[in-house]
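To: structure subgroup
Subject: Chain for Friday's discussion

All,

I'm putting the inputs and outputs inline so they're searchable in the archive.
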Amino acid sequence: MGKEHKDNFIIRYFKQLLLLLVPLNCGGCGKNDVVFCQNCQEDLAKQIHPQYINKEYKLGKVITGGKYEGVLRQVILNWKDHGRDDLDYLIDKIINKILCNLDISYNSSNILIIPAPSSRISKTKRGKDQGVILGKKILNNIKSAHLYPILIQKSIKKQVNYSGLERQINKRDKIRIKTITKVYKNKKYILVDDIITTGATIRECQKALSSVGIVPDLTIALAST
């Protein structure tokens, strides 16, 4: 077991232990003693509305699960940054709904799933690589596809309060292709990320992939602003 993988395992173990010791609260509204309350279940069902956002971001063909706001935002944040792995089934629900709304068939063995990368610091802090996890969730629905994690991200500054331009500058040239990467012809490439805000991460991924002749056929994200 590599050091990074071991560190992630330990962090996730203690987060799960903490969930057992600390009273649960709703992953949507914070209501006590429930993982996800009935009201938030109803609100989330209304919010999950997969749509193509090609024109808004000019990133090629992009589909997301809905607007990054309200209960949908809280679920993703709690799952991604606050160790709420008990909300994993809700992330599955979002992914499943997205895949059911694709306008073409992707049920093919010619599909490679490329996760948008996280920095080593982010993976260690969160105890997981959410891009890879999302990629595997897609594989659960497209059985014949394959995970192809060929992108690497250097460490970047926290950008929670950054403007769109500042995010682009912060991400610029921070994503690259792994040294040994095989480019497969006659394959469909799907890029996957958690949230699209300014599109800076996806643009940097596309730029890195284009350096070896890969153009994603589709980008999937849980939500977009």
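Points worth raising on Friday:
The chain is about 45% helix and 15% strand.
The domain at 3-224 is CATH 3.40.50 (Rossmann fold).

D.
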